[in-house]
Amino acid sequence: MFITICVIAYNEEQTLPAILKDIAAQDYAHGSMEVVLVDSASTDHTKKIMQEFAAQNTTQPDMGFVSVSVLDNPKRTLPCGWNVALKAYRGEAILKVDAHASIPKDFVTKNVAVLESGEDVCGGQRPNIIEQPTPFRNTLLLAESSMFGSSIAPYRNNPGKSYVKSMFHAAYRRKVFETIGGFDERLARTEDNEIHYRMRKAGFKLCFDPEIISYQHIRPDLGKMLKQKYANGYWIGLTTGVCAPCLSLYHFVPFAFVMAIILSVLFCTGFAIAGSITALSGAALVIFKVIAGLTGLMWVLYGLLAVIMALAAVIGAPEIRNKTCLALPFLFLMLHVSYGTGTVIGLIKMPFWAKGIKNGRN
């Protein structure tokens, strides 16, 4: 099978050389592979690194790809970059790889094997890894890798060989995009959810094979991780105005948690202020006590679950256990609040954003 492997990058001069090295090391016949690299108007040396890699393909016989193309994505966002690639690639299938990823040498071979078994879309596990580990970075890795800290997405948690709703690094036969069209360029973060939803609606199955493994580099510090979580939650909120059915219930769990915090604080504060002005009536006092009790119960249950999941994460990874792991329950809280707050803001802005799209302003 002639296959295209594609990487889209924006300002990834630090991570891009590693993933390009992994692509060059693939054990799949390079004479049956093309590489498509898309630069999303980077302001660093990303495009230069891509161009140097393309030039090496003609000067180093051991690379020997059919071609290495460097394309421009002036619109910068990931879905726009994918549409640039989809218009240019020549393979029987296209395999997407993130610029923050690492892939073993048999990654392409295993994807092709699943496609040639009769599947149209396939992918596999995507464990998290971290660059230049330190004790606290290892704790961040545990937080991000935990089901409680991230999500129950199959590529994170390996349900065994099965058909799933969405994937991360995945391979698609050409007929898939010929049938459903390209990526929705309105969605900067949830484009995978939306396009996989359209694939399922069109009758395509997404085959998860645990034998296929790739790795994703997580954000190396807490600030960047919280910023990423906020942005992910924000786009969940916006996406409800474009394609709500492509989202799952678990996407809104942090939103529900944050709303519970906000509403409980507002109710309790309101009742407390009212009580300081005039005595609360019997019914109002009962309501106040019920809300206060439910709020306390929510925090107790959340705290217990956070501690249990932190212990599970630490027990499951004894090789990176360290003193900073004591912060895991608090890291879980910060990640959930950041994501949930993003969703709240996204939902508030969604009507105005959707109206701007309709009027051609976005």
UniProtKB/TrEMBL annotation:
One of its GO terms (molecular function) is glycosyltransferase activity. The chain crosses the membrane at residues 234-253, 259-287, 299-320, 326-348. InterPro entries: Glyco_trans_2-like (IPR001173), Nucleotide-diphossugar_trans (IPR029044). It is an enzyme of class 2 (transferase). It comes from Lachnospira intestinalis. This is Glycosyltransferase. Keywords: Glycosyltransferase, Membrane, Transferase, Transmembrane, Transmembrane helix. Residues 4-180 form the Glycosyltransferase 2-like domain. The keyword Cell membrane does not apply. Gene3D superfamilies: Spore Coat Polysaccharide Biosynthesis Protein SpsA, Chain A (3.90.550.10). Coiled coil: none annotated. The keyword tRNA processing does not apply. PANTHER family: GLYCOSYL TRANSFERASE, GLYCOSYLTRANSFERASE. Its EC number is 2.4.-.-. Pfam families: Glycos_transf_2.
